[in-house]
């Protein structure tokens, strides 16, 4: 199997990224591994589509850290590859990282992913559905039962009315963005700063105002979902609790949050079950959901992280079933030719 990983930029990748972990496992299993960025696509005059791919030489590495060093080394070659020769394109970029400095690249994965699908490549997650998930409005399409009370607006009076409804205990964040950037918590102690919070977010677009879920004080639970079901190996779930840093409402790891082991209970499994039908309908092969209490706060459909940490804490390698699932899908493509569209094949 030839598998290509689409990322924002090779320079911004890190050893412990989930993408590195997955690419390492694919190579360990004997597959050809390529890295592709928004800069690398070429649509030719004859309508063929090729990519300037960074190709990792075959073999094995003792761990994903050693694999990453190889990826960054001169041993990797730059080759022009016809996308028809690629079996799987895994979209692992974060559009929010390019939205400001390289807006042309923000939706490149979706654009070229669609073209790859036309040429017989399995693309996960499904690019057509990802086009609807480029901002947090996608979150609003899940059942209200598992969503915190939320509004999206650019009018300060709407936010103020919402804050009053929730006794000045709300979260404010931008419609587009990731990693906890631009997130504020309004409370009775800082309610006089509400205007500044709104203005700060409005400079870049719409404001999401969300009720504050008290259970968030203990952090959120990141749970991986694959093929519509919680990812599990030997009875252990790919999950962790992300605790907030002191005096910081954000539980994102690179925003200062701390990862700790957690038990996945019936409450979290119920939330996962409620959102499962939509994830399947949308061809969302691998996602990360952030749960607080009995609510989801985020659904990361692009590049969910913390897979390495989940594996370390559980003592199980969660990259294995993910690559195995891709192997199975490629086999199905071979057996059934064009009987399944990309969105259906992505979650079989």
Automatic annotation (TrEMBL):
Reactions the enzyme catalyzes: gamma-L-glutamyl-L-cysteine + glycine + ATP = glutathione + ADP + phosphate + H(+)
The protein, known as: Glutathione synthetase
Ligase in keyword set: yes
Lineage top rank: taxon: Bacteria
Keywords assigned: ATP-binding, Glutathione biosynthesis, Ligase, Magnesium, Manganese, Metal-binding, Nucleotide-binding
Record pathway: Sulfur metabolism; glutathione biosynthesis; glutathione from L-cysteine and L-glutamate: step 2/2
Family indicated by similarity: Belongs to the prokaryotic GSH synthase family.
EC numbers for this chain: 6.3.2.3
Cofactor(s) of this protein: Mg(2+); Mn(2+)
Gene responsible for this protein: gshB
InterPro entries: ATP-grasp, Glut_synth_pro, GSHS_ATP-bd, GSHS_N
């Amino acid at each position: 199997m030839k598998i290509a990983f689409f990322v924002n930029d090779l320079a911004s990748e890190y050893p412990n990224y989930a993408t590195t972990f997955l690419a390492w496992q694919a190579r360990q299993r004997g597959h050809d591994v390529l890295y592709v960025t928004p800069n690398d696509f070429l649509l030719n005059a004859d309508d063929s589509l090729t990519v300037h791919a960074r190709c990792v030489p075959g073999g094995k590495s003792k761990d994903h850290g050693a694999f990453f060093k190889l990826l960054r080394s001169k041993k990797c070659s730059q080759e022009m590859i016809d996308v028809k020769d690629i079996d799987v394109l895994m979209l692992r970029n974060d559009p929010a990282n390019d939205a400001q400095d390289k807006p042309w690249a923000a939706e490149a994965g979706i654009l070229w992913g669609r073209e790859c699908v036309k040429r017989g490549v399995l693309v996960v997650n499904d690019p057509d559905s990802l086009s609807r998930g480029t901002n947090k409005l996608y979150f609003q399409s899940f059942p209200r039962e598992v969503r915190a009370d939320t509004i999206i607006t650019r009018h300060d009076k709407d936010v103020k009315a919402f804050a009053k409804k929730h006794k000045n205990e709300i979260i404010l964040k931008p419609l587009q963005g990731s990693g906890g950037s631009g997130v504020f918590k309004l409370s009775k102690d800082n309610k006089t700063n509400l205007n500044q919070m709104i203005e700060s977010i409005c400079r870049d677009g719409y404001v999401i105002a969300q009720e504050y879920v008290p259970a968030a004080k203990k952090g959120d639970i990141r749970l991986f979902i694959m093929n519509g079901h919680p990812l599990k190996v030997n009875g252990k779930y790919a999950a962790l609790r992300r605790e907030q840093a002191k005096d910081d409402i954000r539980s994102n790891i690179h925003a200062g949050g701390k990862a700790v082991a957690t038990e996945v209970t019936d409450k979290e499994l119920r939330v996962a079950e409620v959102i499962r039908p939509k994830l399947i309908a949308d061809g969302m092969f691998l996602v990360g959901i952030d749960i607080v209490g009995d609510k989801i706060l985020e659904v990361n459909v692009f590049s969910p992280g913390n897979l390495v940490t989940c594996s370390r804490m559980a003592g199980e390698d969660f990259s294995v079933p993910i690559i195995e699932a891709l192997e199975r899908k490629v086999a199905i493509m071979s057996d059934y030719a064009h009987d399944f569209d990309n969105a259906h094949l992505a979650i079989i």
